[in-house]
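Limitations

Structures in this collection are predictions, not experimental determinations, and the ligand pose is part of the prediction. Treat each record accordingly. The example that follows, with pyridoxal-5'-phosphate as the small molecule, is included so readers can see exactly what is and is not provided: the inputs are given verbatim, and the output is the predicted complex.
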Amino acid sequence: MVQWMRRGRSHMIDSELSVPLVVPQLGEEEVAAVAAVLRSGQLAQGPEVAAFEREFASLSGCPFAVAMNSGTAAIHAALEALDVGGGDEVVTTPFTFAATSTPILMQRATPRFVDIDPRTFNLDPAAAMAACGAATKAVVLVDLFGLPIDPSGVAGLKARGIRVIEDACQAVGARRAGIPAGAIGEVGTFSFYATKNLTTGEGGMLTTGIAAVAEAARRFRHHGQGERYEYVTLGYNYRMTDVAAAIGRVQLGRLAAAGSARRANAAFYDQELGGIPGIATPYVPAGSVHAYHQYSLTIDAKETPNGANRDAVRAFLAEHRVGSGIYYPTPLHVHPLFAPLGYGPGDFPIAERIATQILALPIHPALERAQLEQTVRALRQAVGAA
Ligand SMILES: Cc1ncc(COP(=O)(O)O)c(C=O)c1O
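Predicted complex:
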């Protein structure tokens, strides 16, 4: 039976809240799987990683899956495997976690940001294509919050010879137009960080249908070795442990049920919050199966009944013991890291506005009906719509 381990030591979990934002789904099966690995004496990459890769490949609809020790490592390996390097430009979104873009810098390539679609909060593949120039080698598109990118836009990019990386770090188990997340781009990347829908504590996966890309990624994660102790290319230690893979295999078995629970929670919020002036619930295009890593809505203070803005709503929720999160408070182009590229405030007005309006509500599969109702009640009161 699954236990909901509420006394986890994660800094993301505030046990004082009656509606916590995140509760990892971990039970005795994970404990037993880890114990078996410890007893086997094979702790580093071994048979558990190989089995996890096979099972994940089957879930993602890709012939090849290469386990990594983080999502960041998977994105880094994807860029290397697609031969993105110095002098290349990579078109991407400024409204994401830093690790969508930092591996571009690690490869000494240049991120080129493009503003986002206000409905999906994401860089539309068609907008990405319009921004591609002669120096553009690749695009990194994100399945933001668990909503996969539009496959029809990706086809156009591929036809122009632009390499497409799908950062599916938040989208395990999602689909669009029948295609699993991670199989929409040429290369997909996943994160299994502690708060993700499928966790191994830390971990990642690269998926692809291109054998040479999988082979390059395997080399990259293992010090660039071809034969043992033959160093062919620059590589890193990006290997996953068998301990992590054993947890991941159990989590894989929970994924479908957990995904359905997240979608049912989202449907409840959509129904209860959708009609409130000033609140825009997440947009889900037809044909999409959203993974709801986050349920992020926007709050427009010009429209809410009492004029409350996002920060006032968040403070009210906290007072009423309802957790919430802001992903992301500051778009990437405004951070000092990207200033040398010439970016600054005002460059991407949609991303900058959404950053002031976005709010993530608790959506995890352990939520009980009373907690969902409490969240809705508190939010309605916060905006004067009670
Ligand atoms: C969109 C996105 N890209 C990349 C990453 C990096 O993954 P990791 O934290 O496993 O390195 C994450 C997760 O944190 C993410 O949410």
